[in-house]
Amino acid sequence: MQDILVIGAGVIGQLSALQLASAGLRVTLVDAAQAGQESSWAGGGIISPLYPWRYSPAVTALAQWSQAFYPRLAGQLLAQTNIDPEVHATGLFWLDLEDEMLALQWAQALGKPLVPVDMAQVRTVIPALGDGFTRAVHMPGLANVRNPRLLKALRVALLQLPNLCLQENAAVTGFITEAGRVCGVQTRQGQLRAGQVVLAAGAWSGELLAGLDIQLPVEPVKGQMILYQCAADFLPAMVLGKGRYAIPRRDGHVLVGSTLEHAGFDKTPTGDALASLKASAEALLPALAQAEVVGHWAGLRPGSPEGIPFIGEVPAFPGLWLNCGHYRNGLVLAPASCELLKNLLLDESPIVDPGPYSPAGRLGSCA
Ligand SMILES: Cc1cc2nc3c(=O)[nH]c(=O)nc-3n(C[C@H](O)[C@H](O)[C@H](O)COP(=O)(O)OP(=O)(O)OC[C@H]3O[C@@H](n4cnc5c(N)ncnc54)[C@H](O)[C@@H]3O)c2cc1C
Fold first, then answer.
1. pLDDT at 318
2. Can you give the CATH number for the domain in which 340 is found?
3. Cα–Cα nearest to 3, from 273, 214, 197
4. What is the pTM of this model?
5. Is 258 found in the same domain as 237?
6. CB neighbours of 276 closer than 8 A, spacing ≥ 6?
């Protein structure tokens, strides 16, 4: 049995560990804090890029594979853990898109069911929608996942596996190398050795790689979000206008997001963002002006060039693998990214062409 050590227990690290342990490998998953409390918890859980036509085919390929896989993943986790990740297929309405033509051309080329709809139709579905919107396109069936529940279910599923060891509150401080090969990590609690090490530490991945003099272009991009509790039928579909979106959960919670801020590793929610998110929420759904904001938080997305994740072995350091840099789409891209990582580690035929995600040629030197 092969030993794998995965650094970071966000959605990427947890799902990587689950796929690898389910394939029979012996896996250790380490996190600096509690599993699943960072970006993967903070996200909105839309199982699609916000504007999928603005991304490269590399992002689309992973998104498509994951979208098909999510209902099965949620079903498996529910059966195994009794925790429902709540994949909620509400569809999504985009309002007043400036690049509507591009969106429709993209959809036609890929056979996606994105269609223009008139505003009267949108209002029939969402009676609470605000005035002032003039055009809409709709993708039926598009879903969101209740990401905090997904993470809880993943953690319980992982703990059921005899060949998986989860070590929380064990921050990795550096890599152990021998003869140019990475063969383990140093943590605050001591050394952990493994045949292969996977770096899935989200926005913190770059800091860790800098210890090997590798410059990984992944940086924290702060995103703030607010939460309302509404009647279960208040918002029957996801809606996105002027760069902001509202996501309904099955029990009537409505999330409104998000900000995009370059503020280093600071995760403090701010009054300015609260006011701006409330204004967006009330423009989309005016009745929210009378509703209480029951939650407000921030998370750090692992920002990367064009949002294309790094998946594969680091050429200069055999034994060190990356699965990080998923930027705004880590929840939607997670199943495919982790399956691809497993394919590469186990020399299986890959679900998609691994070329665009390969770290080769995309890393710099800190020297
Ligand atoms: C406001 C907001 C909205 C979003 N909405 C969506 C959406 O609708 N759909 C979508 O697909 N994506 C969305 N995202 C993006 C998505 O959340 C991220 O891309 C994804 O969560 C990244 O997952 P990750 O596992 O790489 O990172 P994280 O979830 O951040 O996990 C990284 C883990 O590494 C651990 N770690 C860090 N340093 C160390 C260390 N030294 N040693 C050990 N462990 C360490 C951390 O503790 C953490 O648990 C959103 C993000 C935000 C912030």
1. 97
2. 3.50.50.60
3. 197
4. 0.98
5. yes
6. 259
Distance of CA 301 from the midpoint of ligand 1 (Å): 6
Among the atoms of ligand 1, which is closest to the Cα of residue 200? 26
Q: From ligand 1's centre to the CA of 116, what distance in Å?
A: 33
Same domain (yes/no): 129, 225? yes
161 within domain boundaries: yes
Query: What's the 329 CA to ligand 1 centre distance in angstroms?
Result: 10
Interval between CA 338 and ligand 1 midpoint (Å): 14
Domain that holds residue 321: 3-49+149-218+305-365
Which residue among 6, 39, 50 is best mutated to probe the pocket of ligand 1, counting the most ligand atoms within 8 A of its Cβ?
39
Query: Which residue's alpha carbon is at the smallest distance from atom 4 of ligand 1?
Result: 43
The answer to whether position 204 is within a domain reads: yes
| Packing angle of the helix pair 11-22, 330-345 (nearest 10 deg) | 40
Same domain, 213 and 316: yes
pLDDT digits (tens, 9 = 90+) for 90-148: 999 999 999 999 999 999 999 999 999 999 999 999 999 999 999 999 999 999 999 99
Largest Cα–Cα separation, the chain:
67
Nearest CA to ligand 1 atom 19: 330
Please list the alpha-helical segments (H only) found in the chain.
11-22, 39-42, 57-81, 100-110, 119-125, 147-159, 205-210, 271-284, 330-345
pLDDT surpassing 80 at residue 150: yes
User: Which residues approach ligand 1 with their CB closer than 6 A?
Assistant: 7-13, 30-33, 38-40, 42-46, 171-172, 200-204, 208, 223, 225, 257-258, 299, 301-302, 324, 326-332
Whether residue 34 lies inside any domain: the answer is yes
Does residue 87 lie in a domain region?
no
Residue 131 exposure: Cα atoms within 13 Å on the Cβ side: 0
In this structure, the answer to whether residues 125 and 228 fall within a common structural domain is yes
Please give the pLDDT value at position 2.
65
Contact criterion met (CB below 8 Å) for 171 and 208 = no
How many whole angstroms separate alpha carbon 359 and alpha carbon 340?
Answer: 14
CATH, residue 279: 3.30.9.10
Nearest alpha carbon to residue 146 among 254, 58, 241: 254
Which residue's alpha carbon is nearest to atom 18 within ligand 1? 330
pLDDT band at 67 (very low <50, low <70, confident <90, very high): very high
